[in-house]
Design a protein that fits this description.
This protein has about 300 residues and is of the alpha+beta class. It has eight helices and twelve strands. The protein has helices at about 55-60, 80-100, 120-125, 175-185, 190-195, 235-245, 280-285, 305-310; strands spanning about 5-10, 30-35, 45-50, 110-115, 130-135, 135-145, 165-170, 195-200, 210-215, 225-230, 270-275, 290-305. The strands form two sheets. Strands 1, 2, 3, 4, 5, 6, 11 and 12 form an eight-stranded mixed beta sheet that branches. A four-stranded antiparallel beta sheet has the order 7-8-9-10, covered by helices on one side. A hairpin with a 5-residue loop joins β9 (about 210-215) and β10. The chain is globular and about 60 Å long.
Length: about 300
């Protein structure tokens, strides 16, 4: 295990938890985190807490429909003891990340946490560690494949998806980097080169016409940075990009071959996307794929220097 990529689990052994906040006790609290300091300036930590398994958490906000921008952050239903334990576990993870940062980032004392459930975000804001917070995103899930047969990752046998006249499938080129990084400041050139992507460009003899739209598969396997050039919006480019990602297998979860003996593996792989609550166009893009809202998340920029002193 390197210092730049590691996993942490704090609390009791992962197992069944009460599905309502009333019966949720301190011994039911556990927190899991995956940390990748090499992903700077993008997301460097993903967390998951047993609190998120509580039925009350999932039902406290409701489904977001297109045009509905009034959904409020999840209220905290848990006892003060449960809240304290959950907060201390997250703080311990942050302190560990601060102590084990790679040499190349020794002078970097902030860390970006991604896909943080709004209830966990509310707990963290009480600690004084949060430097800034993103808008709230709805976490949507949908089938990662269209059929029961697994898609061929990186293969050429994926479904043919038609594009509007004058557009063609392409790739990210070095000349595109500057524009993409301006639009997505939390990405890096290394990520542009590493992350799976789907790109639509204007047709040209060289195949290097202007970019009409693109999307990446994030480190967490979600559809990331879906973008359509304003000149090409309303033409179905976003739907074509996401459909292409799914048909090519880019949204399939990591291999489960090492988990063959476990009985908790999902029968059907799922894909996910985070969509801002007021982005009606993006919600409409994913709903035909069977996307359903599950909960709300946000991204938090936290101060690691203060993490250790709060544990």
């Amino acid at each position: 295990m390197s210092f730049s990529k590691f996993e942490i689990i704090l609390g009791q052994t992962i197992g069944q938890t009460p599905n309502d906040a009333v019966h949720f006790q301190a011994e039911h609290v556990w927190t899991l985190a995956f940390i990748d300091r090499d992903n700077y300036p993008g997301t460097e930590m993903w967390t998951f807490s047993s609190l998120e398994l509580c039925r009350t958490m999932k039902a406290s906000v409701g489904f977001l429909t297109p045009g509905d921008t009034q959904r409020s952050a999840s209220p905290i239903y848990f006892s003060s003891e449960v809240q304290f334990v959950a907060t201390q576990q997250i703080l311990a993870i942050l302190a560990h990340a601060a102590e084990n940062r790679p040499r190349l980032v020794a002078d970097r004392h902030q860390l970006l946490m991604g896909n943080v459930h709004t209830t966990l975000a509310a707990l963290l804001t009480t600690t004084g560690l949060v430097c800034s917070q993103s808008p709230t995103y709805g976490k949507y899930i949908f089938p990662a494949t269209e059929t029961t047969e697994p898609a061929r990752v990186g293969g050429t046998a994926h479904k043919t998806i038609e594009l509007p006249r004058g557009l063609a499938w392409g790739t990210i080129l070095p000349g595109d980097h500057a524009d993409i990084l301006r639009a997505h400041q939390r990405m890096s050139v290394a990520q542009l080169q590493e992350l799976p992507s789907v790109v639509v460009r204007e047709s040209s003899g060289s195949g290097h016409g202007r970019i009409a739209g693109y999307a990446f598969t994030g480190r967490d396997g979600a559809v990331s940075t879906l973008y359509v050039n304003p000149e090409f919006r309303g033409k179905g480019v976003a739907k074509a990009v996401v459909a292409r990602m799914r048909s090519s297998g880019a949204l399939l979860p990591p291999s489960l071959k090492n988990l063959a003996g476990m009985d908790c593996v999902e029968a059907e792989p799922i894909a996910m996307a985070g969509i801002e609550r007021d982005n009606v166009a993006s919600i409409a893009t994913f709903q035909p794929l069977g996307a359903q809202w599950l909960w709300d998340v946000c991204w938090l920029l936290v101060d690691l220097k203060r993490a250790s002193s709060n544990v």
